[in-house]
Write a structure and sequence with these properties.
alpha+beta, nine-stranded antiparallel sheet, extended, 40% helix, three-stranded antiparallel sheet, single chain, 477 residues
């Protein structure tokens, strides 16, 4: 067996060519003797002699006797171009070292195979956790695996898929109370997904919402304490209809726990929305002149079955919101203040009756386009819920005008559909009379920006005028 000192190539089948006149010299070498090309080898040449014992280090030298000294030497079998002195090439042979190398190679190969088997065993264990081998796992282990998978489906895909999986695998009963308890008590569930699930209009979701609210104990709590606790258990969805259903459920539960605070749940419902709007107005940096207590009291007149709520009660509520803004959880459970708007700025709006154009400060927030008389105004002039509406560039003589109107135009003339918006008139909230809103921006870029933001905020689901309807209904009882 030959080992090339240049490249280390092993050649166990090399034999000298038979068609050339070559001389082969196999002298014994001292262990550790350097290559013939080295300076040490030239100073201390190896002793000549015959073969040695097994394991003795040997040097195999060949040269072509037909070549002249200055001609290119013949190459060894490995093809190396580095040649020994005097047209020679060297291989070092150490039988014991070679056997040791082979043994190490075999050991490494065996170790690699063992590692492969261990890796496969781990992969099989992971697969078993997902697919559940009932023959090898206990019943409790199976339940834990199903819980983990249902949890991941709830957070990573949708609450509906997660609940469905848990029901199908007997972790949850297909009953509203059991599902509500799971949502209410399981830590780490995505609170955005919880809000979306609770706001759905499916029969089971409505029952789960009712049971979820019943799990909250508001007895003895103040109105704002109860509202804070309720809104912390999930994140309000963006769709107005879902918010409407969720806040209805809160109002009913609060009134059941605190009889006599309000004459009916509608009062609690309207006040909840007024409180959220107050929180936004007080802590939104785009509102420079914050609303005062008198404005808040005025806005909530007549909402308690046609009567006014006690001014002391509203004052305490106002101070609580002013000093301690509402926080709502992000999807992962962290919190953010419920005040930021999507876009704000000056625009010019066409009036509903007189068609006069007036400059207004607009704020786009939570699927609502709210406008103020000025950027430092205390109370809004009106609100346009962006539901069943569309926004587009308007065909108008004025430049940079866009239009908000019902989907598919909403009809023409007497058949034109009135947009379900609200505005403040004489200190009270009344329904607007617009069949469309024409709004002028200061530039083409500004117009395109508003159209893009409003389009993103719009939903195409029907919505009753949730605040106006409840307030008007309460005031006419």
């Amino acid at each position: 067996v030959c080992v090339c000192v240049c490249c280390g190539l092993l050649s166990s089948s090399f034999q000298p060519p038979k068609d050339t006149e070559q001389e082969w010299v196999i002298p014994p070498l001292r262990v550790g003797l350097p290559c013939l090309n080295s300076h040490e080898a030239k100073k201390n040449p190896p002793a000549s002699g015959g073969g040695g014992e097994s394991g003795e280090r040997r040097l195999v030298v060949f040269w072509d006797t037909r070549r002249k000294k200055k001609e290119t030497p013949a190459r060894p079998p490995c093809g190396c171009s580095v040649m020994a002195e005097a047209h020679t090439q060297s291989w070092v042979v150490d039988r014991e070292e070679l056997l040791l190398i082979r043994k190490l190679k075999d050991d490494l190969t065996n170790d690699i195979e063992k590692l492969k088997l261990q890796i496969k065993a781990v992969e099989d264990q992971i697969l078993e956790l997902d697919n559940i081998d009932s023959d090898e796992e206990s019943e409790q282990d199976q339940v834990d695996v199903h819980k983990r998978r249902g949890f991941r489906l709830f957070n990573m895909e949708s609450a509906k898929k997660g609940i469905k999986y848990l029901v199908e695998n007997d972790v949850l009963k297909n009953e509203a109370l059991d599902i509500a308890r799971y949502i209410y008590s399981t830590e780490g569930l995505n609170k955005t997904k919880i809000g979306e699930y609770l706001g759905e209009f499916e029969p089971l979701n409505l029952e789960v919402l009712a049971q979820f609210s019943l799990l909250h104990d508001f007895e003895g709590q103040s109105f704002d304490q109860a509202l804070r606790a309720y809104l912390w258990s999930f994140r309000l969805p963006g769709e107005a209809q879902k918010i409407d259903r969720i806040m209805e459920s809160f109002a009913k539960r609060f009134c059941d726990c605190n009889e006599g605070v309000f004459s009916n749940p509608d009062t609690c419902y309207v006040l909840a929305f007024s409180t959220i709007m107050l929180n936004t107005s007080l802590h939104n940096p785009n509102v420079k002149n914050k609303p005062n207590i008198d404005g808040f009291i005025s806005m909530n007149r007549g909402i308690d079955n046609g009567k006014d709520l006690p001014s002391d009660f509203l004052t305490v509520l106002y101070d609580s919101i002013k000093n301690n803004p509402f926080k709502i959880p992000d999807g992962d459970g962290s919190s953010s203040i419920f005040v930021s708007s999507d876009k704000s700025g000056w625009l010019v709006k066409e009036g509903g009756s007189h068609k006069t154009w007036r400059k207004r400060w607009f704020t786009l927030y939570n699927n609502n386009l709210i406008y103020f008389e000025s950027d430092n105004e205390k109370n809004p002039k009106g609100t346009i819920p962006l539901v069943n509406l569309e926004v587009r560039k308007a065909d108008d003589k004025k430049p940079f005008v866009f239009e908000i109107c019902p989907v598919d135009g909403g009809g023409k003339g007497d058949e034109a559909e009135t947009i379900k918006a609200a505005k403040v008139k004489d200190g009270k909230m009344v329904q607007g009379k617009h069949t469309s809103y024409k709004i002028q921006a200061s530039s083409s870029e500004e117009m395109d920006s508003w159209i893009k933001c409003i389009t993103a905020a719009m939903t195409k689901n029907s919505l009753n005028e949730f605040i106006k309807k409840r307030r008007d209904g309460a005031s006419h009882v």
